[in-house]
Amino acid sequence: MRILLTIDSFKGCLSSADAEQAVSQGIKQSLPDAQMLSMPVSDGGEGMLDAFAAAMQATIVTSDAHDPFMRPITARYGLAPDGTAIIEMAQASGLALLQPDERNPLTATSFGTGELIADAISRGCKRMIVGLGGSATVDGGRGMLQALGAAMGDDVVDLSQSLLADCHVPVTVACDVRNPLLGPDGAATVFGPQKGATPAMIDELERQMERWADLTAHTVRHDYRNMAGAGAAGGLGFALLAYMKATMHSGIDLLMDLLDFDRLLTGCDLVITGEGSADRQTLMGKLPGGILRRAQAHGIPTLLIAGRISDRQALLDAGFADVHCINPTDSPLSECMRPDIARQRLTDWARTFLNRH
Q1: CA atoms of 227 and 157, how far apart (whole Å)
Q2: How far apart (Å, rounded) are the C-alpha atoms in residues 119 and 79?
Q3: Domains plus CATH for the chain?
Q4: Which of 178, 256, 276, 303 maximizes the CB count within 10 A of its CB?
Q5: pLDDT by residue (tens digit) across 291-311?
Q6: 171: nearest Cα among 113, 216, 210
Q7: pTM for this model (two decimals)
Q8: Do the beta carbons of residue 127 and residue 171 sit within 8 Å?
Q9: How far apart are the first and last CA of the chain?
């Protein structure tokens, strides 16, 4: 039996590689003769750097940067042999860098992501892939631009002394979020609460983003606020589109093409994918949904596992061969989020499920 493991990270708990290793252990205990392929994956969020770096044979480099509250940190990004820089914005501007009681998108900045971009430019990168996801910010990418040397005025953004004045590195954004910058589906309203925003803060962030959108439209002579993906990563997608002329690509499809995923599927009997929390949103641009589409095209059954399951019937109707929650229904969230417990439950699930089948 040939099994392909393509499990996304369990956000805040396990990396993609950790989750796949735990499942692999359970499979070996149940089916010692099974042939397994393990492919760490990410759609642009947590784990994007390691997944893309492995696919592109990139070297991981480090750079001095600042976290969302401007505290000094050392952050990582990748440099591939063809000159592509791989930037995961969560490395410097991510929610995982903050304690839960620190979260405050009114003050969090994407400055650190700009520092990583500046460092890559200084090393002569020829192109750039920027993964959006897991951000602590709703600053519309203003911090990133300031780190690149942009001067912010009340009625204009001055790029004349910035790195962007003379450097025109092509930027590809790896992102499966399609939200616009503003409105009920925008950066503040949809993603603000998970970053610590209260209703009053969401209203203020929305006003700030609207002013920023107006200023940007005046500066670049084009309005990007309603473009798909502009609201990604707290509006960082908006700034990359408007000021760096980035192109948006599905992070799932971009990674799978780099990995020659369709070739990897050849001869497989089963695909196992998963994520921390699965629901109908899984089918709308999230990684397991993209995995399912590719596997379906080859007629290969796909299992979905997660730490929490909602909308199970919708997931089954979409074509997953089966959908499994690894946690007992009465488990407290604090217990489920412990990495040691999550690893053991993934291993136990793989061993018992395959024993039954």
Answers
A1: 20
A2: 11
A3: 2-39+260-356 (3.40.50.10350), 48-251 (3.90.1510.10)
A4: 256
A5: 999 999 999 999 999 999 999
A6: 113
A7: 0.84
A8: yes
A9: 12
